[in-house]
Design brief:
The chain is of the alpha+beta class. The protein contains six helices and seven strands. The chain has a seven-stranded mixed beta sheet with strand order 3-2-1-4-7-6-5, with helices on both faces. The N and C termini lie close together (about 10 Å).
Length: about 220
């Protein structure tokens, strides 16, 4: 059953608070959106998650228009870009998770060090080049990366995870951060960790059709 707009707002707020409580994000640096009608509901700019209320959420239509008097997250452009690039994306989670951000500063994709890499739909978590936050240039880079992967890293910035629901987007964000932590630890042990071959990832991708978070 489809959720009401108010219920979606409450779920977004709850997810934001959980994201910070889990250590996946810090302060108001992250942002979350959910596809709605021809646009999206997105977190506002600059309001602490523990003070955020349903009426603070901002609806941005497919043309990037939103109500006067409300200020959406500064990253609303790349959230909208994700929905334009991926029809399967019903929610977008962005954060500055510690290990994902470290890997992004190293300017490296996360390779197939573990079969869970396939959760994002490919044999790596790709990285897109740097552009100033909130800019159209960054959204263009995001489109190029996210159309080929459900999750990407943003150079010197953080990560984006998408999903067929907000719960699935959050689940993928957690998996990406776990992979990033593994990768950072492996880089400290060996500069070139062994990866799974593409052939094995293809097998795993086939098995992942029915794998992942199951929603009741």
């Amino acid at each position: 059953m489809d959720m009401s707009k108010n219920d979606l707002c409450e779920k977004i707020i709850s997810s934001c608070r959980n994201m910070n409580a889990s250590g996946l994000n810090q302060g108001t640096s992250g942002n979350i959106s959910v596809r709605l009608d021809d646009g999206m509901l997105i977190t506002p700019s600059g309001i602490a998650y523990d003070q955020m209320e349903a009426e603070d959420l901002v609806f941005v239509n497919g043309n990037g228009e939103y109500d006067a008097g409300k200020v959406p997250s500064s990253e609303w452009r790349f959230h909208l870009a994700c929905y334009h690039a991926r029809e399967d994306a019903k929610a977008v989670v962005h954060n500055h998770a510690m290990y994902s951000t470290i890997v992004s500063i190293l300017n490296k994709p996360i390779p197939a060090i573990h079969y869970m890499i396939a959760a994002a739909g490919g044999n790596e978590i790709p990285i897109v080049d740097y552009a100033t936050y909130g800019t159209q240039k960054l959204s263009e880079l995001v489109i190029a990366g996210i159309k080929n992967s459900k999750a990407i890293l943003l150079r010197h910035h953080g990560m984006i995870a998408t999903g067929e629901s907000l719960d699935k987007a959050m689940w993928l964000a957690v998996e990406v951060e776990a992979l990033a932590q593994m990768y950072v630890n492996l880089l400290q042990i060996t500069g070139s960790p062994e990866c799974l071959p593409d052939e094995e990832i293809k097998v795993v991708l086939g098995k992942f059709v029915n794998y992942g978070l199951r929603e009741k």
